[in-house]
Amino acid sequence: MADNRETVRRMFDEVVNLGQLEVIDELWDPEFESVTAQGTLDLAAFKGFVAAWRAGFSDIHCEVSDVIAEGDRVAWSVRATGTHTGEFMGLAPTGRSVDFDSLNVGQFRGGRAYRHKVIMDIPTMMAQLGQMPG
């Protein structure tokens, strides 16, 4: 369990925050699936999603907290902050800052992320980007 908790932290510290996308192949299972409000992502689509985040928010920073592990399952929350400096989800850069949360539950296989479900506070992020009422 301690290893799975450390893997979650590495996912965000190394891959999202530092942009070391090559680490994805080390920490994620080849059969990985992530369920989001926008649909289910396989590993290739997930890599594209992370790359899009980094392109849209050049200073993206995700802080992991409340990590709870039991067996092969881990739950955690993430606070994401950043400045919208590049195109993201079809939106031209606004220069606005975002600060929002997500709740995550993952299943691990052999120490690698295998299944993932996330609830992101997209309405708050979109309001901060001026795309909907706050």
Task: Describe the structure concisely.
By secondary structure, the protein is an alpha+beta fold. It has four helices and six strands, in the order H-H-E-E-H-E-E-E-E-H. Strand 5 and strand 6 (112-120) form a beta hairpin.
Give a verbal description of the structure.
The chain is α+β, with helices and mostly antiparallel strands. The protein has one domain (2-128): Nuclear Transport Factor 2, Chain: A. The protein is built from 4 helices and 6 strands; from the N terminus they run H-H-E-E-H-E-E-E-E-H. It has helices at 2-17, 24-27, 43-56, 122-128; strands at 28-36, 39-42, 61-70, 73-83, 97-109, 112-120. Strand 3 (61-70) and strand 4 form a beta hairpin. The longest helix is centred in the first third of the chain and has 16 residues, at 2-17. The radius of gyration is 14 Å and the shape is globular. The termini are far apart. 19% of the residues are buried.
CATH architecture: Roll
Radius of gyration: 14 Å
CATH class call: Alpha Beta
Overall SS class: alpha+beta
Report the β-strand fraction as a percent range: 35-45%
Q: Kindly report the CATH topology.
A: Nuclear Transport Factor 2, Chain: A
Instruction: Provide a count of the helices.
Output: 4
Helix content estimate: 25-40%
Give a topology summary.
Layout: H1 2-17, H2 24-27, E1 28-36, E2 39-42, H3 43-56, E3 61-70, E4 73-83, E5 97-109, E6 112-120, H4 122-128
Parallel strand pairs: 1-6
Antiparallel strand pairs: 1-2, 3-4, 4-5, 5-6
